[in-house]
Design a protein that fits this description.
By secondary structure, the chain is of the alpha/beta class. Helix content is 37%, strand content 22%.
Length: 463
């Protein structure tokens, strides 16, 4: 099998070829070709994976959760942290034996990790059993690339950064029939010094308000109860994010609205007022701060100070004292001192987050911070991370107590971890709630009186 870049075969003819291929495959094997699509990383990646599945379903593929049964395997990858890349390479190594037993199996790697040239080169040389490697700019070329692999038995590599128009006619094949991710924009213009996203996702591009509204209306008519709007920096939506939220909030139906992720520099008072005055928007904001030290924030190129960040928090809490904030935090950024790290612990106490997502700094090749001197040992970073998590545990243990005695509206997601007869879901603030109930409640809203608060979840009784 030869190697080549994607030459952009005609999409219509490629689609016709794939439709004929899946029809012939089913006639010969008694079932359609089976695709295994696995997405690593963030909700945006999950949404991209659903789009890939939608494209495959449109030409006749069906799906499996078992790689051993698959005729096509696509790993949709994340490049934000090193451990995510390590997992992908580990999975690719395990697939080598499967390819030896099934020579016609097509293996593909796509997404943020695959957009990086050094990753594509590594796969090309060290993982010869991989047939298809394409980045985030090539999703719309899936049919043409599969055509080349199946028809010509060529290995396809596409890391081009072509202008990428938004395909408003895309179909997402959603496995979850209650909660839906709706992308409203792609890319990022912020260039935080630690982040690879602008390099692998490109510049910001927003969908039209009309297409977003039509998609949400359709989802609500299908019975979806929770709509999460997605974007690398969702509140920099080109057509006005608060305006879009107000339009979605006005849609008739029994559902709730979430969104992520927000950048503090774009978190306006208009956005806060829109959330607080709405009927369906959850009273919770995921607002990644990354550090509690102004010097580190400047080194990260975050475009705000701790004071400006707290101004958003204080404005919100003046209007709704128990409003829920969650955040992302990076521990051990190059050059960070212990005293500066302690400023982040202080911020946790000041804001009183319901939850934090904290990570040890992960060097990403190609970012500005990759060239910074990093004198903090991995052991020290690990100790700081544990210290941070202990601080959050103490804070959330006290702060979550505000829910005890209240009745919360919970979207039931399934069986709980406590044991048989227990269900779990999340309240509007995004906090896990466990309670006794019948599994028939799955996918519905339930009123739960909170009886106990832990440091990570709530428990209660069905009203």
């Amino acid at each position: 099998m030869g190697d080549c870049v994607n030459n952009g075969a005609n999409t219509d003819s490629a689609r016709s070829f794939l439709e004929a291929y899946t029809f012939r495959f089913k006639a010969e094997n008694g079932h359609a070709p089976l695709a295994y699509v696995h997405s690593f990383g963030c909700q945006q990646n999950v949404s991209d994976g659903e789009r890939l599945m939608g494209r495959l379903a449109a030409v006749g593929y069906e799906f499996t959760k078992d790689t051993d049964c698959a005729d096509l395997i696509i790993l949709n990858t994340c490049a934000v942290r090193e451990n995510a890349e390590d997992r992908v390479f580990g999975n690719l190594g395990q697939l080598k034996k499967l390819k030896q037993h099934k020579p016609d199996l097509v293996i593909g790697v796509c997404g943020c990790m695959a957009q990086q040239q050094h990753v594509a080169d590594k796969i090309k040389e060290a993982y010869r059993h991989v047939d298809l490697v394409f980045g985030t700019f090539a999703y719309n070329e899936l049919y043409a690339m599969l055509y080349e692999v199946l028809n010509s038995r060529k290995r396809i590599f596409d890391q081009s950064e072509r202008p990428l128009d938004i395909d408003e006619k895309f179909v997402q094949l959603r496995e979850n029939k209650v909660q839906a991710f709706v992308p409203i924009m792609y890319g990022c213009n912020n260039f935080c010094t630690y982040c690879i996203v602008p390099y692998v996702r490109g510049r910001e591009r927003s969908r039209s308000p009309g297409s977003v509204l039509n998609e949400v209306k359709e989802l609500v008519s299908q019975g979806y109860k929770e709509i999460t709007l997605l974007g690398q920096n969702v509140n920099s939506y080109s057509y006005g994010f608060p305006e879009l939220l107000r339009s979605i909030d006005a849609i008739e139906g029994d559902f709730r609205i979430r969104f992520m992720s927000s950048h503090p520099k774009d978190a306006s008072r208009d956005l806060i007022d829109t959330i607080l005055s709405s009927k369906k928007i959850c009273k919770q904001l995921h607002l990644p701060v990354q550090s509690g030290c102004d010097r580190i924030l400047k080194a990260m190129n975050r475009h705000y100070t701790v004071e400006q960040y707290l101004d958003i928090v204080n404005y919100t809490r003046e209007k709704k004292p128990d409003f829920s904030f969650t955040t992302d935090l990076i521990v051990g950024f190059p050059g960070e001192t212990y005293e500066e790290f302690c400023m982040t612990k202080d911020l946790i106490r000041q804001v009183r987050y319901d939850n934090i997502y904290s990570f040890v700094y992960s060097k990403r090749s190609g970012t500005v911070a990759a060239g910074f001197e990093d004198s903090i040992s991995d052991k020290q970073k690990g100790l700081w991370l544990r210290e941070l998590l202990l601080e959050q545990r103490e804070t959330s243990s006290r702060w979550l107590g505000r829910f005890v005695g209240r009745v919360c509206r919970v979207l039931v997601e399934g069986e709980g971890r406590t044991g048989e007869g227990y269900l779990t879901g999340k309240n509007d603030e995004g906090i896990i709630v466990e309670f006794k109930g019948d599994i028939s409640l799955k996918g519905q809203f339930a009123e739960i009186k909170i009886t106990k608060a832990m440091n990570w979840a709530l428990s209660g009784e069905l009203v």
